[in-house]
Write a structure and sequence with these properties.
GTP binds at residues 230-237, 312-316, 376-379. It is found in: Cell membrane; Cytoplasm. It catalyses: GTP + H2O = GDP + phosphate + H(+). It is an enzyme of class 3 (hydrolase). The chain is an alpha/beta fold and 429 residues long. The protein has 3 domains: 1-6 and 16-36 and 78-117, no CATH class; 133-211, Four Helix Bundle (Hemerythrin (Met), subunit A) (Up-down Bundle); 224-413, Rossmann fold (3-Layer(aba) Sandwich), CATH 3.40.50.300. Helices cover 44% and strands 8% of the residues. The protein contains 15 helices and 8 strands. Strands 3-2-4-1-5-6-7-8 form an 8-stranded mixed sheet, sandwiched between helices. The radius of gyration is 25 Å and the shape is elongated. The model is unreliable at 1-96 and 108-123 (pLDDT under 50). The protein binds guanosine-5'-triphosphate. Residues 230, 232-238, 260, 263, 266, 315, 376-377, 379, 402-405, 409 line the site of guanosine-5'-triphosphate (GTP).
């Protein structure tokens, strides 16, 4: 009872409160207000913003205060009090009849299942990937094949080949996969199509495993400089915003450099992400020299002892030699302050561009020495197979996958979850 009275204290709503496991009774009381828990930084295991430095946020470069984070109190442990019911009890109520209690328990169980399903959709595990990628053209065409419970024969292999090529897995990777399956089928290694499906899943994961190397922030580099590059509209600025949110939630001090000085709205877009996440943004405005912005930002981040600096660059076509050369200049200028910078040249690739992504990466790698990839827009595309082509051809680590527009939709690349979303195990069973 004591806790019901304590609940009267004004308590600001906190998104992470819902991470706490609620009992069935609490869910019944809170329903329909129970929300899916907001995800913390994947891999960190920490709830969003628990690890955030409370008061050390520097002022923004324009002199304005860094925002409420500077004075925000450290996030307290989630209260043990249950959420307020619609009507607060004022006097002891007699126990309801057995049938009513059974109905209440059934309703609470239904609420609990609904909350769990919602949580799974936003979860960092496989469920979130399935929800986002399960409906893509790639998943539907490949999954549909096995769902029809086909015969184990050459026709099935032909159909798999077509599905992989249509999804832009590429000729080389597709041929390797299909011929491997054909050899094993002839050697009678598969009892049925379900066994072939299991083998195909394993082969797809094996193709991706060597490139699943998450981005490690080297604590010895202060700041650790990430230079993002890529063609126009692939999602660079959005990815930087998502990364800012991730690193901020991990409690890292960071700074952004608005180096996309070409597109009119890019500087404002990055500043908006910075403001939303209480992260300072160094900008000189449109048409400024991108290398000069990067230089200023690195000096500033170093002076403030930031752990991470993420620099945006303007989108450019891989065929534009002058603009590609500019990337080399930005790298050289950064190297004047720290010879090891940039520590990561992160190329953002749009997963919907299919095989064109292969030639983009080739050119960007030649011009800027790409050390990691982010493949965006994997949600809702029929062409996500390009991930396999990139992995096979370049072996460059795929750090993150963009599977939606929400900040939490940038996932550390997980080959098992990715393949599982495209080709669930249960299809062939
Ligand atoms: N569905 C989906 N949309 C995304 C994803 N990542 C980015 N976008 C969207 O892609 C569009 C372009 O993103 P930007 O971040 O502006 O792209 P950019 O590379 O900075 O663009 P330029 O500055 O012109 O080179 C925006 O509408 C984003 O919301 C993703 O993973 N999934």
């Amino acid at each position: 009872m004591v806790s019901w009275f304590r609940r009267d204290k004004p308590e600001p709503a906190r998104p992470d409160d819902s991470r706490r496991r609620l009992s069935i009774e609490e869910l019944a009381a809170a329903f329909p207000d129970s929300r899916a828990p907001e995800r913390g930084a994947p891999g960190s295991g920490a709830p969003a913003s628990t690890a955030r430095a409370p008061a050390a946020e520097p002022d923004r470069p324009d002199g304005s205060p860094a925002g409420t984070a500077a004075t925000a109190p450290e996030r307290p442990t989630p209260p043990e009090d249950p959420p307020a019911p619609a009507v607060a009890p004022t006097a002891p109520v007699p126990a309801p009849p057995i049938e009513d209690r059974a109905a209440a328990i059934a309703a609470a169980a239904a609420a609990s299942r609904a909350a769990a399903a919602e949580a799974a959709a936003a979860a960092p595990g496989r469920a979130g990937w399935r929800e986002r990628l399960g409906g893509t053209g790639f998943a539907r065409s490949l999954g549909g094949l096995f769902a029809r419970n086909p015969k184990l024969d050459d026709d099935l292999l032909d159909e798999i080949e077509t599905a992989l090529l249509t999804a832009d897995v590429g000729v080389a990777a597709t041929t390797g996969l299909v011929e491997g399956m054909r050899r094993r089928m002839k050697a009678r290694q598969f009892a049925d199509a379900a066994a072939l499906l299991a083998a195909l899943r394993d082969e797809l994961v094996a193709l991706l495993r060597p490139v699943a190397r998450p981005l490690e922030i080297d604590a010895g580099a202060r700041p650790f400089v990430i230079l993002t590059v890529g063609v126009n509209g692939v999602g660079k600025t959005t990815t930087i915003g998502k990364l800012a949110r991730r690193y901020r939630d991990e409690g890292r001090s960071l700074m952004l450099a608005a180096g996309d000085t070409f597109r009119a709205a890019a500087v404002a877009q990055l500043q908006a992400w910075g403001e939303r996440n209480d992260v300072p943004v160094v900008a000189q405005g449109q048409d400024a020299d991108a290398a000069s912005v990067a230089f200023d930002a690195l000096q500033s981040a170093r002076a403030r002892g930031c752990e991470v600096l993420i620099a945006d660059t303007a989108g450019r076509l891989h065929t534009q030699q002058g603009l590609m050369a500019e990337l080399g200049k930005i790298k050289r200028v950064l190297g004047k302050i720290d010879p090891a910078a940039p520590h990561e040249v992160l190329m953002v690739v749009d997963g919907t561009t299919g095989q064109n992504a292969v030639s983009q990466l080739r050119q960007f790698h030649a011009a800027a020495g790409v050390t990691g990839l982010v493949v965006t827009k994997l949600d809702g595309t029929a062409k996500g197979g390009v991930v396999f082509a990139l992995a096979r051809e370049f072996g460059i680590p795929i750090r993150f996958a963009g599977i939606g527009e929400r900040p939490e939709d940038l996932r550390v690349f997980d080959p098992e979850a990715f393949v599982d979303a495209l080709l669930p195990e249960s299809l062939g069973g």
